[in-house]
Amino acid sequence: MMRVLIVASYNKNRFAPFIVEQTESLQKVGCNIEWFGVQGKGLAGYLQEIPRLSKMIRKYQPDIIHAHYGLSCLLANLATRKVPIVSTYHGSDINLQKIRPLSKMAMRLSAWNIFVSKRNMELVAATEGMKCSLIPCGVALSEDQLQTREEARKALGWSTNAKKVLFAGAFDNAVKDPELAQRAVALLDEAELIELKGFTREEVNQLMCAANCLLMTSKTEGSPQVIKEAMACGCPIVSVDVGDVAEQTTDINGCYVVSSRKPKELASALTKALVFKDKTHGRERIIELGITNEQVARKIMKIYEDIIGK
């Protein structure tokens, strides 16, 4: 069984849920997984983790190290040159100019690089096949995502005619630009903007099945998981043109990508989404794009096998 060491930030006392889900899917396709949680912050904090990570590598003796986010990728490469490093860049490590040079340094050192969006690849002039692949993080498909709007609203105690708009993030996250979302929703008649914060995955699925639409107003993104989660639930989507949202949702009825950041234009798109009664075909698009967790795990496993020659 292939031994894989996952290196990722743990400074909030948890790993990012989408990294955990990807790793669990890798276990199902035949990986023995160990975790290294980076607890430092900033470049100096990450560099201080080199001795601890080097010790972990000697103890676990992995076949592959898979690091997530630019600083973790650089850390992994500096901790060992004996084990091949697969590095995944998730967006902020490319979009933030102060981090991008460090990510590019990790790219040169890594055995293989994975980007979650074409836009991020373009920012660093990466080309598929040149030590890199375009593989967005996958999304889990589950039965509870198939609830009708009526079923989900009944469970939540929402009225049939209430206008409910989910905000794609937390109101205290400035990168998500909640002010723009609030200004756009304020132009609508009696619509409520709901913060997606503090819910379990099951609760998020229910909210997405019950809501009229999801609204994303982020200033920057890579390949936002919340968009794929909404697609899996058949939830209509309104978004600014950020990350790979346009690529993922193109030609899906009930999904609208707005080219400007003007509240009035977002409100116009929201008006269309609010009257969309059916589930979108987002779930079918996810399968078509090959971005279920299982499909993504198989793609990554193939990269591991190619690197170590199995």
Write up what this structure looks like.
The strands form 2 sheets. The protein has a 6-stranded parallel sheet, sandwiched between helices. The chain has 2 domains: 2-138 and 292-308, Rossmann fold; 143-288, Rossmann fold, CATH 3.40.50.2000. Helix 4 crosses helix 6 (100-109), helix 9 (178-186) packs across helix 13 and helix 11 (225-233) crosses helix 14 (282-289). It contains 15 helices and 11 strands. It has helices at 17-28, 42-47, 50-60, 70-79, 92-95, 100-109, 118-123, 149-156, 178-186, 201-210, 225-233, 245-249, 263-274, 282-289, 293-308, and strands at residues 2-9, 31-38, 64-68, 85-89, 112-115, 132-134, 163-167, 191-195, 213-216, 237-240, 255-258. The protein is α/β, with parallel strands linked by helices and 310 residues long. The model has no long low-confidence stretch (mean pLDDT 96).
Number of separate strands = 11
CATH superfamily grouping of the largest domain: Glycogen Phosphorylase B
Instruction: Give the class from helix and strand content and strand pairing.
Output: alpha/beta
CATH architecture name of the largest domain? 3-Layer(aba) Sandwich
Summarize the SSE layout with pairings:
Layout: E1 2-9, H1 17-28, E2 31-38, H2 42-47, H3 50-60, E3 64-68, H4 70-79, E4 85-89, H5 92-95, H6 100-109, E5 112-115, H7 118-123, E6 132-134, H8 149-156, E7 163-167, H9 178-186, E8 191-195, H10 201-210, E9 213-216, H11 225-233, E10 237-240, H12 245-249, E11 255-258, H13 263-274, H14 282-289, H15 293-308
Parallel strand pairs: 1-2, 1-3, 3-4, 4-5, 5-6, 7-8, 7-9, 9-10, 10-11
Helix pairs in contact: 1-15, 3-4, 4-6, 8-10, 9-13, 11-14
